[in-house]
Amino acid sequence: MIENIHFIAVALLIALGIYTLIFKRNLIKIAMGISILASGINLFLISLGYRAQGIAPIFTNAAIAASEVQAKMVLPAPQALTLTSIVISLAVTALMLSFAIIIYQKTGSLDATKSRRLKG
Question: What is a single cellular component term in the Gene Ontology annotation (predicted)?
Answer without folding.
Answer: plasma membrane
